[in-house]
TrEMBL record:
This is DUF1450 domain-containing protein. It comes from the Bacteria. InterPro entries: DUF1450.
Amino acid sequence: MKKIKYCCRNFKHGSKSVFKTLKQEFPDLKQKKKDCLSNCKLCSKQCMVMIGKSEVVVAPTAEVLYAKLKHRIG
């Protein structure tokens, strides 16, 4: 899987727990925290991450986002 990027401003929606959990479960997975991913319309409303340079994954809760990412990882 490509690098997963997290917007630090989105951490208040729960993506911080997803970041920490994936870091513990998959220490070799490439993850990066960025100050802003320039997807403010999505980021301000729900949990989101960016995979690679353009693919955005969104979910209404951190649990759903975690499930989507874990499914992608395999």
